[in-house]
Amino acid sequence: MKKTLFATAQDAEAAFYEAFMKQDLDAMMSVWSDDDEVYCVHPRGARVSGVAQVRESWRQIFAAAQSVRFQVREHHLLQAMMVSVHSVYEHIAVGGESRTRACILATNIYMRTEQGWRMMVHHASPAPAVEEVEPRRTAKTLH
Amino acid sequence: MKKTLFATAQDAEAAFYEAFMKQDLDAMMSVWSDDDEVYCVHPRGARVSGVAQVRESWRQIFAAAQSVRFQVREHHLLQAMMVSVHSVYEHIAVGGESRTRACILATNIYMRTEQGWRMMVHHASPAPAVEEVEPRRTAKTLH
Questions:
Q1: Quick count: other Cβ atoms within 10 Å of Cβ A74?
Q2: Which residue in the set B46, B76, B107 is minimally distant from A49, CB to CB?
Q3: So what's the ipTM on this one?
Q4: Which residues are within 8 A (CB) of A135 and not within 5 positions of it... i.e. 6 or more apart?
Q5: Is the pTM of this model over 0.95?
Q6: CA distance B62 to chain A (A)
Q7: Any idea what DSSP says for residue A23?
């Protein structure tokens, strides 16, 4: 399969979350580097390493998953010459629900390879419970 | 305070776990880069970023903690020119206990700075339950 060449780490990250939402295994793996050094930690899971194991872990997740939607928020970026580290909160909604079902904190590491920017590491773990921000209502109408 | 200069990411990592076990806040912060870009995720915690917040998070942990011992196992390393990414399992024992109380999976990211190798990221999260390996006993004595 011809892989997409991502010109920036941001492009690779956008493709990662798009593939995750579409549960598209080939698109997901086109984001990852073809490399035995890559690794992935799914929430509460053990580390899986090497591209074959990482692929298998996503296959299992996509086989089991309901449709999910992500809001990726509160980016924090660290950039070096060939490496880009992104910390993001993933607010995950399931099926047709609008509320956030789970909040995950992920460290995503991308490296610039000969095939463009590719994901090397995805470490995702449970974040503290989400406080749903309701529109603030005053107790009284003041006018 | 004069900071130690770490010649390799491994040296910085050794100092990180030594400072953690000794609950020595100054030694811990000598491992971190003096940088607003650094961030830290303690198990089940929110992301804290910037050296001041990271320092405060360790101060709170050390103030609350019993003495802890670490065995750091199953290193998985990813190295680029200026960046080194280490994934490790931290087997943590508390007080005088010999058994592992908690198993944590950490992604530690070091960068080569003008002040030597320094920690930029520590993302730690609960790993699957540890299976204590008991010496295997046969039900019958066979001879």
A1: 12
A2: B76
A3: 0.86
A4: none
A5: no
A6: 21
A7: T
